Amino acid sequence: MTEQTMHKKIWLSLAHMSGEEQKYIQEAFDTNWVVPLGPNVDAFEQNLTEYLGENKHIVALSSGTAAIHLGLLQLGVSAGDEVICQSFTFSASANPIAYLGAKPVFVDSEPETWNISPYFLQQAIEERIKQSGKKPKAIIPVHLYGMPAQMDTIMEIATHYGIPVLEDAAEALGSTFNGQKCGTFGEFACLSFNGNKIITTSGGGALVCSTKQEAQKTKFYATQARDAAPHYQHSEIGYNYRMSNICAGIGRAMSLS
């Protein structure tokens, strides 16, 4: 082994371009679709929807963190609530909980999957019910580094207690558990398309929704919650979370390759 090979770096996550990205980016410029909507966004969302299946509806957003935020918002998480997430994860799994004034309840992971332990999950739920008299508002399991969590057992526990699941599948697009794609188990799931993810849009994410109504509500909140009026009218608090048509061009190409 030479000194040169000993010092060669092997990158953990490196973006691989398909060769078609520039084509869709150029189309955005040529047609002046440089806003957070347009043909690339629509096509990228459709590609993801067709890939995941399970009758899911997908909304492209500015980040995976934004996706978790809007998912929790639609699950009714608010100040004073508690949301379970795993302790071994990136901070973006927990930050949106705090955005809403809720409290993250961290549950330890297991060595088999590196993800949330079903045993400790059930234990944490029982403890929260005993201490506060109410169950957690949601559960956020993470598929860390693309390794699926034990979703069959986790979903059984969630169903038993009537707690909705929001999957953090930011790193797991393409992974499956018992033949089912990660990101299709929960009521919601987040995907991430930052530069270190399975496919990238440079920066971006998506919320996987179970119903068309949830997807429409996601777009509403992500577009400043602007009401259907001939003037600027906002009856709810909204966010600037939509994905750029330029960035979506990168994802559109990568999701076809």
Write up what this structure looks like.
Its cofactor is pyridoxal 5'-phosphate. It comes from Microbacter margulisiae. Pathway: Bacterial outer membrane biogenesis; LPS O-antigen biosynthesis. Strand 6 and strand 7 (180-181) form a beta hairpin. This protein has one domain (40-254): Aspartate Aminotransferase, domain 2 (3-Layer(aba) Sandwich), CATH 3.40.640.10. The strands form 3 sheets. Strands 1-9-8-5 form a 4-stranded mixed sheet, with helices on both faces. Strands 3-2-4 form a 3-stranded parallel sheet, with helices on one face. It has a two-stranded antiparallel sheet with strand order 6-7. The relative contact order is 0.20. It has 257 residues and is of the alpha/beta class. Helix content is 35%, strand content 14%. It has helices spanning 3-6, 21-30, 39-52, 64-74, 95-99, 118-132, 151-161, 212-222, 245-254, and strands at residues 57-61, 82-86, 103-107, 138-140, 166-168, 176-177, 180-181, 188-192, 205-209. The protein is globular and about 60 Å long. The chain contains 9 helices and 9 strands.
